[in-house]
Amino acid sequence: MRYYGTVVRPPSEADSYILQITYGCSHNECAFCGTYLDKPFQVRPAEAVLEDIELTREIIPDTMRVFLADGNALVLSTRRLVPILDALSAAFPNLRRVGAYANARDLLDKSHDELTLLREKRLQIVYLGLESGSDEVLRRVNKGATSSEMIEAVHHAKAAGIRISVIGILGMGGAELSAEHAEATGRVVSDMDPPYLSLLTLMLVPGTPLHQQWQEGKFELPGPEDMLAELRQIILHTNGLTRCLFRTNHASNYVPLAGTLSRDKESLLETLDAALARGKSALRPEAWRGL
């Protein structure tokens, strides 16, 4: 198990073996993201990836979950991904699922048959950063995709049997576009109808364009209670979801929530209303928050 630079994974992959198959992010131009500022995007040599799988087989042979890093490992072609997935299945008899980050283009560039093949080879879940449902917010943060492209990508993956976990970020529109960001995100999530939705809270990272905009007074970060108000509006504007497991369990969030949106929407709103009524005493202290 050899790693290069910063390596991150979703909270739900805490028990997974993390296997780097790429370094960095192929886009790496999002104004808010400082995760991969320490390394340019590279495809990791196939022989090094296969060596790591063999090393890990000797150390933790009962591995059941694997997460493919880095930022959008699914940028690799199906031709490159299949031997890696085959090697994982051969090395770990108890392997249940493989997960990875992806952006909209990674998914849309693959055919239905390709995604189906990857799913059959245990690529069971993909994490997609929606960030915001507002196209103006997405443009300002240089996301590199529109909301309609991300909706299409989610449906494309779902049609192949791949579960999608969608990630949004509270505060992404700043104070100026807070209402638009929240309402549009709720609507877009409804159009996606993903099996999983998680929300993080924006934390400005030194060295990123958004942090510089904040320093120059061009971006106003919403306050903690404004972030909760956004969270409430996002939940309020979700409708028609089949079954969406919802979490705000990331360390960046002020209030942890959990539920199924199709069933627990009203109780989640009540919990938020109670937190807003209590004010700062209901919030996770700043010192306890993290990326």
List the helices and strands and how they pair.
Elements: E1 17-20, E2 22-23, E3 42-43, H1 46-59, E4 65-69, H2 78-91, E5 97-102, H3 104-108, H4 112-120, E6 123-131, H5 135-140, H6 147-159, E7 163-170, H7 178-192, E8 196-201, H8 209-215, H9 224-236, E9 245-247, E10 258-260, H10 261-278
Parallel strand pairs: 1-4, 4-5, 5-6, 6-7, 7-8, 8-9
Antiparallel strand pairs: 2-3, 9-10
Helix pairs in contact: 1-2, 2-4, 6-7, 7-9, 9-10
Care to give the gist of this entry?
By secondary structure, the protein is of the alpha/beta class. The protein has helices at residues 46-59, 78-91, 104-108, 112-120, 135-140, 147-159, 178-192, 209-215, 224-236, 261-278; strands at 17-20, 22-23, 42-43, 65-69, 97-102, 123-131, 163-170, 196-201, 245-247, 258-260. It has one domain: TIM Barrel (Alpha-Beta Barrel).
